Amino acid sequence: MSATSGSPTRPVIPVYLVGAGLVGTQVLHQITLPHIAARLRIDVISNSKYQLEVAATSDRSNIGNILTLLPSSSSTSPKPVPEGFKVTKHTLEGFVQGLTQAESGGPRLLIDCTSSQIVAELYPQLLRSGISVVTPNKKAFSSSQALFADIQKSKSRRGLVYQESTVGAGLPIISTLNDLIATGDKINKIEGVLSGTLSYIFNEFSRPVKGGKAQSFSEIVKIAKEQGYTEPHPADDLSGSDVARKLCILSRLVPTLPALEKGFESVPTETLIPSELANIATGAEFVERLPEFDEHFEAMRKEAEDAGQVLRYVGVIDAKKGRVKCGLERYAFDHPFASSLSGSDNIISFHTARYAKRPLIVQGAGAGADVTAMGVVADCIRVAERLL
Amino acid sequence: MSATSGSPTRPVIPVYLVGAGLVGTQVLHQITLPHIAARLRIDVISNSKYQLEVAATSDRSNIGNILTLLPSSSSTSPKPVPEGFKVTKHTLEGFVQGLTQAESGGPRLLIDCTSSQIVAELYPQLLRSGISVVTPNKKAFSSSQALFADIQKSKSRRGLVYQESTVGAGLPIISTLNDLIATGDKINKIEGVLSGTLSYIFNEFSRPVKGGKAQSFSEIVKIAKEQGYTEPHPADDLSGSDVARKLCILSRLVPTLPALEKGFESVPTETLIPSELANIATGAEFVERLPEFDEHFEAMRKEAEDAGQVLRYVGVIDAKKGRVKCGLERYAFDHPFASSLSGSDNIISFHTARYAKRPLIVQGAGAGADVTAMGVVADCIRVAERLL
After folding, report:
1. How much is the average pLDDT of B167-174?
2. How far is A203 from chain B (nearest CA, A)?
3. Which of B118, B214, B337, B352 has the smallest set of CB atoms within 10 Å of its CB?
4. Which of B89, B246, B262, B325 is the catalytic position?
5. Across the interface, do B359 and A358 touch by the CB < 8 Å criterion?
6. What is residue A159's DSSP assignment?
7. What is the pLDDT of residue B181?
8. For residue B53, which phi and psi values (nearest 5 degrees)?
9. Across the interface, which of B176, B185, B345 has its CB nearest the CB of A358?
10. Known catalytic residue at B139
11. SS3 state of residue B315
């Protein structure tokens, strides 16, 4: 594979993308905008089974067409590709390790749009080889403390890591937290609705009902599943583990907090899965049985409403007490988490020594391929600005 | 003055600070935190009359003590300073021009914490000399289009400009807008409460009153003035020109909008100053006469309230129509600008092609020395990351 970094007068960074799904595709569309393509050149696009190499001299302006040359990971017999392109079968691990072994003088960049633990565990090796990493993949930052520490240790002036889209997609959350800490602010508390799915479910379920009958919890989950807002198995959202991963990522950026040795598994996390439904195999069956527990959820909703409050599933980092946890909390009707939240929006508030009276708040869509890709590509631009 | 950029093994950027007021002082405290001081070294601290040079070898760890060595701009006979420091009388213009004439191989950085038009007009010259500029000073970006264009043209890989704190202090507003645009999003509308003073005044004035009597407009302005929330002459806030400057800054980042030839003066701006009070010389007299116009403001408030709305003074960029304007608008009680805004907070919403259903919102304190300095110092870190 070519690792030339362009002519000496117009330096350009070779880019390798792994994970050509919805987010990866959007990343490719944004990163081939002419002003970005002048500095970042897509050299390889890959999925779990195949890699498509693009010669330095090939035209990249129609990335949609180029993408059709990459065989799907379920394909068994790849079609021939035109000159200037090359398809190879690979394993993800072999592909990424191959990058670290290739000779290269200049800066290089891997964009990881998979949700692969295998790729995440190769970040230290990539960084030590001088390959920067930009990713929305939460795994590397929310698994064991050992992996996280290894990544921090392996970073260098040539091996950078950017991860804005690991929390809240394109919303400026990671960069804001980093700026607060780097400039010496003291974090008191970080609190956020960090799951688009759970945001939608509780925005629908827990809105004050003026007359009429509130929708039941199970009905809302059913609709959310039908509309594609949940994972195929809604229990994967209701477990809270996605929120726990994001909270783990944020808390590791706050230097005063204790290490979470087992990553997101070390975050105390309230599950919304009724214990009787803990081992239901399919999403369909889960949704079918959920109505048995509507009374339980309705009682919680009613109790909150009677107190002038709504339910929200939030992640909370109490930096003063050194505590991190995910679970259901209640917020007064006029709290920003109640009054101004709707749809599947994320919202996060940073309470700090400087933002003491009222927090710094960021709100907006926290999921979706286009906004996730935006966070990724903005990070790629920062890498180019630093390395070129 | 020394322009050495440290030993070859530990490169460091010499930093010149102009404007040692409240914000400048906070910047100095943050920028001398050890992990930042390792890359950015304060070499000169100056006000409109004097400059204090700090030798490369002098200890900077107690910046509070060092600051006492800079004579106040009203001082006529500076006291002697210890070895390793040097005080010189100067003009702002002479000082900044002197920097551009000094010999230097490495990167250098000017932090402009003044609100000086003179300094702003020297940015192109600084940039062409390879001196980067970080500033919360709005002047350079909200005055004539000619100056703004000259700055854009004079930027280079060694002469960078960062200006996060020109809008909303440390809130991530400029960087967010830049990221949206750079990654190819389409701006539809930007709308914001961008003046802390006017935010406070209308949050107090226009909150729904349940029984009891609402405070009058003039009473609220009087209290705001007493508490230091307004300029010494409240008309300087009520004119809306501060909002117009911020709106000009934002709109110039949106490439599809028409140029504002005269800067903020080209922004249609609704003034809240009653025409009869347009030429009142002092803030005290202004506040004394304002009650004559309470009926006028109360009628507007009442009309909004009867429609279930509150008044907010906002800046609006309608990118679809190519229109920019500042003025009073009405928002329904459950709109984020109404329900979740309080105190002197700023709030801004970005409506884009990607954030279409619901906008991306940033909210929090938009003024204050510590949060303004945070935006400045975070920018300085970015300059160091790019130039070292």
Report:
1. 98
2. 14
3. B118
4. B246
5. no
6. S
7. 98
8. -90, 135
9. B345
10. no
11. strand
Of A182, A185, A345, the CB nearest to B358: A345
Tokens of A165: 């889209």
Task: In whole angstroms, give the CA distance from residue A365 to residue B177.
Answer: 15
CB contact under 8 A, A172 and B170: no
Is the Cα torsion angle A144, A149, A152, A154 positive or negative in sign? negative
- Cβ distance A182 to B357 less than 8 Å, yes or no, reads no
B248 in helix, strand or coil?
helix
Band (B102; pLDDT cuts 50, 70, 90)? confident
| Residue B169 touches chain A, beta carbons under 8 Å | no
Catalytically annotated residue among A210, A246, A262, A320: A246
Q: Exposure string (b/e) for A329-340, b if CB count within 10 Å is 16 or more?
A: bbbebebbbbbb
Q: What is the CA radius of gyration of chain B?
A: 22
Interface of A with B in 82-111 (CB under 8 A): none
Furthest CA-CA distance within chain B: 71
Token digits for B81?
A: 């300073």
Is the CB of B184 inside 8 Å of chain A's CB atoms? yes
Tokens of B290: 């304002």
Question: How far is the CA of B62 from the CAs of A202, B37, B44, B221, B342, in angstroms?
Answer: 51, 12, 15, 40, 37
Q: Are strands A131-134 and A108-112 parallel, antiparallel or unpaired?
A: parallel
Q: What's the complex ipTM?
A: 0.95
By the CB < 8 Å criterion, does A11 face chain B? no
Task: Give me the pLDDT at residue B1, please.
Answer: 41
Give me B38's structure tokens: 């390792």
Chain A residue with minimal CA distance to B386? A386
> Which H/E stretch holds residue B38?
none
**Segment B338-380, tens digit of pLDDT:** 988 889 999 999 999 999 999 999 999 999 999 999 999 999 9
pTM for this model (two decimals): 0.96
Among residues 17-36 of chain A, which lie with CB inside 8 Å of chain B?
29-30, 33, 35-36
pLDDT confidence tier of residue B6, bands split at 50, 70 and 90: very low
- pLDDT at position A337 over 70: yes
The number of C-alpha atoms within 13 Å of A128 and in the hemisphere containing its C-beta is: 11
> What is the DSSP secondary-structure string of B113-171?
-S--HHHHHTHHHHHHTTEEEE----HHHHS-HHHHHHHHHH--SSS-EE-GGGTTTTS
- Any chain A CB within 8 A of the CB of B11? no
pLDDT tens-digit readout, B277-287: 999 999 999 99
Contacts of A333 (CB under 8 A, 6+ apart): A208, A308, A309, A310, A339
Of A336, A355, A381, the CB nearest to B340: A336
Q: Which of A267, A258, A327, A237 is nearest to A143 (CA)?
A: A267
Is the separation of the CB atoms in B366 and B170 below 8 Å?
no
Which residue type sits at A230? T
**pLDDT tens digits along A349-375:** 999 999 999 999 999 999 999 999 999
Q: Would you say residue B173 has pLDDT above 70?
A: yes
User: Considering CB atoms only, which of B171, B175, B381 is closest to A360?
Assistant: B171
Nearest CA in chain B to A362: B362
Q: Which amino acid is at A320?
A: K
Q: For A97, phi and psi rounded to 5 degrees? A: -65, -35
CB-based contact, A333 to chain B, within 8 Å: no
**DSSP 8-state code for residue A42:** E
Q: A156, A340, A370: best mutation site toward chain B, by most B Cβ within 10 Å?
A: A340
The Cα–Cα gap between B197 and A36 comes to 39
Question: With an 8 Å Cβ cutoff, are A334 and B339 in contact?
Answer: yes
Q: Per residue in A140-173, pLDDT tens?
A: 999 999 999 999 999 999 999 999 999 999 999 9
Residue A185 to residue B374, Cβ atoms within 8 A:
yes
